[in-house]
Design brief:
single chain; alpha+beta; five-stranded antiparallel sheet; 2 helices; 40% helix; rod-shaped
Length: 231
C-alpha cells in the first residue's frame, strides 16, 4: 500500500514538473490530498485494530493466568485433602490397633454339634477392634503380634464326655475336656495358650468328642477369651 502511494505521488510530481496547466495541477493536488487523507484513515484503522488485538491478547493472557492460578489452587487443595484423608486413616488405624484388641464371649444356649464344628459363642462381653465374629465363631487377627487365648466348655447331666479344641487356621493347638457321669453333675474344662498370629489368622473353638455343649444364661460357663499382648 505504501509503495502504491509513493508511486502515485511520484507520478503526480512528474506530471506537475512537465508544465501542465494550472487547473489540471489543482485537480492533481486535490487528488493527492484525498489520497493522503485515505492513507491516514487506513493507518488509523490499522492502529485501532492493532490496539484492539493487543487488548484482546492481554485479556486472553489474563484469563489464562487466572485459570492457571485456579488450577494450581485446586491441585493444592486436592493434595491437602488427600494427605488429610491419609492422616485420618492412619490415625484411625493407630487408634484401632495400638494394642486395643481383646474379646470375651459366652454361650447362652445349649448346642448340639458334630465333630469339627465351631462353637459359635453368641453373647459378647468385649470385642475391641471387632476381631470376633459371633456369626461364625471365629476370631480374625487384625494386627500381627503375640496373643493369649483361653476357653471353657461346660457339660451337665449324663451327656458324658465333651472334648473341645482350640484351632489356629484350622490347625489343632490345645484341648479342653469336661466329662459328666450322672444328671447331678456340672463340669467345666478348658485351657489357655499364647500364640503368635499374623494379620488375617483365625482362631476358633471346635467340638471334638461329644455332641452337646452346655449353655445357659443362669450359669455362663461356656466362654472364649483372647487378647493382644505385644507386637
Amino acid at each position: 500500500m505504501e509503495r502504491l502511494f509513493v508511486l502515485t505521488i511520484s507520478f503526480i510530481c512528474l506530471h506537475l514538473t512537465s508544465g501542465a496547466h494550472g487547473a489540471a495541477n489543482d485537480d492533481l493536488l486535490r487528488r493527492v490530498a484525498a489520497l493522503e487523507q485515505k492513507q491516514a484513515e487506513i493507518d488509523q484503522t490499522i492502529r485501532s485494530q492493532q490496539i484492539l488485538i493487543q487488548l484482546q491478547d492481554e485479556k486472553f493472557d489474563a484469563q489464562i493466568k487466572e485459570m492457571q492460578e485456579s488450577l494450581a489452587t485446586c491441585q493444592t487443595a486436592a493434595a491437602d485433602l488427600k494427605k488429610q484423608r491419609y492422616d485420618e486413616q492412619m490415625l484411625r488405624k493407630k487408634r484401632q490397633f495400638d494394642g486395643n484388641v481383646a474379646f470375651s464371649v459366652w454361650l447362652d444356649h445349649d448346642m448340639t454339634l458334630g465333630s469339627g464344628q465351631v462353637i459359635r459363642f453368641n453373647k459378647i462381653i468385649t470385642n475391641e477392634a471387632n476381631g470376633y465374629d459371633p456369626n461364625t465363631g471365629h476370631f480374625t487377627c487384625p494386627e500381627a503380634g503375640m496373643y493369649v487365648f483361653s476357653f471353657m466348655v461346660s457339660q451337665r447331666g449324663n451327656y458324658g464326655e465333651l472334648e473341645a479344641k482350640l484351632v489356629k487356621n484350622g490347625e489343632h493347638i490345645i484341648d479342653g475336656v469336661a466329662e459328666t457321669a450322672h444328671d447331678a453333675q456340672d463340669l467345666q474344662g478348658g485351657n489357655t495358650v499364647a500364640l503368635r498370629l499374623q494379620k488375617g489368622d483365625t482362631v476358633a473353638i471346635e467340638e471334638v468328642i461329644g455332641n452337646h455343649v452346655e449353655g445357659w444364661t443362669g450359669y455362663r460357663l461356656t466362654s472364649f477369651t483372647g487378647m493382644f499382648v505385644y507386637p
